[in-house]
Structures are given as structure tokens and as C-alpha cells.
Amino acid sequence: MARKPLPPRLTRAESFLGIHFDCHMNERCTQVGKTVTPRMIERIIEQVHPDYIQCDCKGHRGITAFPNSLGNAAPGFVRDQLKIWRKVTAKHGVALYMHYSGVWDNEALARHPSWARVDEHGKRDKRITSVFGPYVDKLLIPQLKDLIDRYGIDGVWVDGECWATERDYGRKALAAFREATGIQSVPRSPDDPHYREFTEFCREGFRRYLDHYAAELHRHEPSFQVASNWAYSSHMPEPVRTGVDYISGDYSMQDSVNAARFEGRCLAPQGMAWDLMAWSFCEKWGEGCKSTKSIPQLQQEAAVVLALGGGFQAYFKQKGDGSIHPWTMKLMAETADFCRARQDACHRAQAVPQVALLYSREAYYRKSTKVFSPWHGELTPLNGVLRALLESQLSVEVLMEHHLEGRMADWPLIVVPEWDYLAPAFRRELLAYVTGGGSLLLVGPKAAALFKKQLKVRFVGKAEAKPQWLEHDGWLCGQKTLAQRVRLGKGATPFGRLYPENDTRAKPQPAASLARLGKGTIAATYLNLGERYVSGRTATARDFLAALVRRLFPQPIVEVAGSHAVDVSVMRKDGRLAVNLVNTAGPHADPNVYVYDDVPPAGPLAITVRTGRRPRKVTLEPAGQTLEFRYSKGAIHLELPRLEIHDILVVE
After folding, report:
1. Domain boundaries 17-108+135-162+228-348, CATH class
2. pTM score
3. What is the rounded distance in angstroms from the CA atom of residue 281 to the CA atom of residue 301?
4. pLDDT in tens, 243-256
5. Buried b / exposed e across 93-106, counting CB within 10 Å, b at 16+?
6. Cβ(265)–Cβ(386) under 8 Å?
7. What is the CATH number of domain 353-556?
């Protein structure tokens, strides 16, 4: 009798919804597989119906969750639990991916100290391997090939990668650096000559390492799917030039809505299948007392990702034997239902160009203290400007130089948020964009300084960070941030006022200005709004920026009034306009709130959509409700009485 064929499994590009399990096994894991059963995994699949499951095979500690001949397996196995995961997922047509820690591997370095990267003092690292050394060929590639051959896994989500990579002063790395650059005196501190060149050399080392193992794994099994956690994201803001199959990252378990808002916008334009991973629990780092999130909390985080066209997964802890905490699957089941209801309207939708917010790779790499990761406030200004724009109901994309080059005219407005450097060729292209009819907004004195001539202003003295008060519409707000005094020349129009004290009788300075340049307009603020918005958000600063944007971009496709806690993402899918509305209300940014179960509804919302012609139908998804609207002068007008978490207006 012929064996019944197994259901086909989706590739990652086809996948929408997944679950991630990991436990980072250690030397105390002596009964691996003890309580892992086929029924446990079947229940997960029956409740959640995921496209894929990721489970642990090697965490940062470097100890594997499967028996292997390379000598770093967990100390005790009751049964081979990965065989059970594979058998059950294959039976149900669910793809199986491994969570595998790459660059970070304690156990490998305990056994092979020479595989470590070396720090600037000549000391071998005990956690971080060298991307120039033999680790990738001696351990990573052989282990992953073994997993492919023994278990038939579909892919890998490699953790501890670009964000764990450090500058490497090992003998092999330094020899390669000297040969590649001709620089003989190796820089060991940021003040040394050629430190930037050495850092970029270490970045290139990581790129080569990633491309090497992806190519080797594809050569071994062409259908195998590879991702390196946070590669080609906010951590690594550059074009995808290695052989990864999808891009992904796990955003922070606290302040998760803001993290997802930003990280999703960094991944979405990269031209790859992408997803984001939420943490299903919350705690303060090192506290050791996790609290599982609520259903509306995780649904709100998922909504931010779905609205940008991405796939969604959530991370749940595995126990030390590889089993799970079954009660937590009710959270994932409800969240999965929420996501699936929106899949047809959202998944792989593309943003309609409205506001482009520049994430400058060139500027970021100049100021970053790490090889890749932005963990020292480098992106705070960018995040602040993004939040202020989103909270003004503007549809915003975060775009890097390679997204904009040659395509700037597609966006009605480009915003440069407090960057202090732009490559000369890119500056020239920005100016050509403006003279051709575009609108350019520079936020902050350092960004404005790059275009003083075109702004028709003269800087007076040096920029200073001191208390000052920004005025808009009769209200003042304190702005202790970097500001620059300016004198406006002929053709520069002032916008807003900046006072030296909380009193409108004092003599103000221009807070911003606008100037015509060819067929377009260039504008700048002379104080940093982004970094201050993160640490000291005010409605006045938000409304000031929104009013300035309105001068530059008076007719966005969508306008929403009624709540500032609504993110608007204007997308297009299958030829239809999809206006995503995400309710971001609630205490998600409060570090002392781990779990909240109430997202206050927003509304009523007055919505205008400029369609150019009368649409045949407007539907509210996922409810499938046909909406009444009024059509006038190329735009539809309607009211949404109540927004719970996430709705989509689909315009046909």
C-alpha cells in the first residue's frame, strides 16, 4: 500500500504566521525530551494553525538540544525531541525551523579558545567567535548540515549574529585588514586614525561570513531557508547582498509597540520576505520573573506589523527538556485568529509613497559605537521624529539611501531627521529632487547646516543645548535640546517661534523656516525635535511638526481626525488601496507596566481618502462591512464610529 503523501510545507516567502520556541539549553539540561510528546506538538498546531514553528537547537550558551557528534550536546537525553517535532510538523504540513545561535557561542569557545574574536587589548572573547576564523566551517556549517540530513528541517533562524559581532583584533583579522587596506597601524580606539575603516572592515567580515554559510547550506540543500537575526534591519541598514532567503528580527519585549512601528518600517522596503517576532512575555532584564502578555496586548503588537505588510511570529519559552508551557498557547491561538482574519488584506501589501523618513546608513555607521547594533542612542532622533509624524496620522516609510536613490520623485515629502552627515552625491540628488518639485524637511541644526545656502539662512554662533520654549498655536512647551540661532535671508520665510523663557513677551527666534528652490520647497527646524520627543513628548511639539509638514505636503492621500493614537499606513494590494488604522493607545511605553489588558477604543474618526475618482465600493476589513461614504472633489469622506485595535479600509 502506497504511503499517503505528506502535506506540502510553505516556504518562508509564502508564510505569514509562526511560533518561535527557544530555551538556550545549558549544562543543567540532563533530561532533554522527557516530556516532549507528539500530542503536545499536535495541540499547538490544532490551536494555532501556524505556517511554521521554530524551536531550539542551539542557544547562546552553545549547548545543543539534539545529540550530535561534535561534542557540545546537552548532558542528558531521554529521547531525541527534535525527531518528534519534525515528525509531527511534517505530518501536518507545518514547516520546521531551528533557532540556532551563530556568532555567539560560549561552549565552542570553551572548547576551542582560538576560535574567539580578540578585543583591542589582545584578550580572547569568551562569548563571541571570530567571523574570520574556523568556527563557521568547523562547527556552524557541519551542525546545520547534520540537522538538514537527520531531521529534514526546512530552515534556520540564526540568532546572536550581526548584533553580537564585535571588532576583531585577532591575528588572522589584522593580517587581512593590512592586506586589504595597506594600513599598517591598527586603530584600537575611536580617536585613532582609520578607526572607521577598521570598523567597516569588520562589517565586511561579517557579510562574507554570512554569505559563505548561506551559500554552503544552499549548495547542500537548495530548498533550505536561511535568515540571520536582524541582518538588513535597523541594525544593519544596507542593501541585501548575501544569500539569505528572508529577513527577520525579535523586537524588544518592553515598549514593544514603538519598537514594532520602527523595526517593521526598516524591514518592509528591503525587497525580501520579512517578519517580526514579538516576545509573548515581559520582564526587566535579569529579573527572572516573566509575566505572559495579555491577548489584546499581543494583538496590538501584531497589528503594527500586519499593517506594514509583514509576517508575524511570537516567542514562547521552552522548558529545559524541550517541552512548552501549554497554557500559554491560548494567547497565541487568539492572536493567530486575529492575524488570520487580516491576512488577505495585509500580507505582502506594499506602501504607497507619502512621507519618506531618511535612515542614513552613511551617517549611522559614522556615529555607531558598535559594529552594527544601535544600542547607544544613535537612532533616538530618528525614532522620535517617526513617532511625532505617526501621531499626526501621516503615513510614513523609513527609507535608506539605496531605497531613495534614483526614485526620490516618487515621494511628495522627504524628511531628514537630525543626521549630521550625508554623502555628497546623495545631497546633490536631494537638491535635484527639490528643484524638480519635491519637498524636503530637515529636522535639527546639524541637518540644516548641510543645506544652509539653499535654506537662505545664516547661522549665528554655535548650536547649544539649553532650555527653550517652542510656541505653536498659542501654546508653549519646554525643549531642552540642541538649537541654533539663525538670521533669515531674502527668500526665507519664518515658521514658528522659539523663546528663551516660558513667556511670549520675550524676544523669539525662528523655530523653522521655508524657502523655494526651483520648483520645490526646502525647510528646516533649528532645534532637535526627535530626541526630545522620545524623552519629553509634548502635544505642542507634535502639532508644530505636523503644521510644518502640512505646509510642505498639504494633500496626503489619507487624513484622519479624532485621535492622535491612530497609526495610518496607506498600502496597496492586488490593485486595491488598503488604509490600515492601528490603535496605539494604552500604556505600552510605560516601563513599569509589563502586562495590560485594555486598549481604549479610538473614535469616532473622520476619514478623508483622496481617490481621484468615485470608488465602486469601500469595505471595512476584517468585518467585511460595506461603508457608506460621501464623495466630493476627488475624495471620499466617511466616519468610523469606533476603532478597537486594527481595521483596514479597502477602496475598490
Report:
1. alpha beta
2. 0.97
3. 12
4. 999 999 999 999 99
5. ebbbbbbbbbbbbb
6. yes
7. 3.40.50.880
